[in-house]
Amino acid sequence: MKKFKFELEDILSLRKFEQEQTQIELGKAVAEEQAIQDKLNMIAMQHSDIVKNTSGSVDFSVIANRQNYISFLNKQRDYLLEELARAKLITEAKREIFQKALQKTRALSKLKDKQFELYKVQEGIEEDNLVDDIVTANASRQ
Predict the structure, then answer these.
(1) Closest CA to 23 of 88, 110, 90, 97
(2) pLDDT tens-digit profile of 52-76?
(3) 112, exposed or middle or buried, with CB in 10 Å at 0-12, 13-18, 19+?
(4) CA angle 81–87–93, rounded 5-degree value
(5) Using CA atoms, how far apart are residues 76 and 132, in angstroms rounded to an integer?
(6) Which residues contact 6 (CB under 8 A, 6 or more apart)?
(7) pLDDT for 9-37, tens place per residue?
């Protein structure tokens, strides 16, 4: 019996490789987005801490330093929000590329599965014919 061979196996392997690569790129983009979000959360915590630690202070230098630090945190926050918006756009683009790669791989995998099922049916028929020929040959010899 002949072995099953999918004619597009090389292309399927290439598509799977491309899918894995796009998945890695998507993962990197999501990780970058999460890192920016973590920095934003840290800034929010620092803002909350500085306000809580300096509230009720009447010392002018403490109040001035707090305002300067809050201004600095606000600038950082604004910058990170812009970076987050860019990162989200990149993530979405990478997600779309991954989805397309996934669709291509699935299409070829389905084709391979259908061809394998057809192969099994044909092999079953050939096996049945071979058994019938053997039985017929044995019956005619007797």
Answers:
(1) 97
(2) 988 888 888 989 999 999 999 999 9
(3) middle
(4) 145
(5) 81
(6) 12, 112, 115, 116
(7) 999 999 999 999 999 999 999 999 999 99
pLDDT at 31: 98
Residue among 24, 15, 8 at smallest CA distance from 103: 15
Q: What is the pTM of this model?
A: 0.75
Q: How far is it between the farthest Cα atoms of the chain? A: 117
Do residues 95 and 28 touch, judged by C-beta distance below 8 A? no
Q: Quick one: CA dihedral 51, 54, 58, 59, positive or negative?
A: negative
CA pseudo-torsion sign 39, 78, 70, 50: negative
Which residues are within 8 A (CB) of 105 and not within 5 positions of it... i.e. 6 or more apart?
12, 15, 16, 18, 19
Q: Give the distance from CA 32 to its chain's centroid.
A: 14
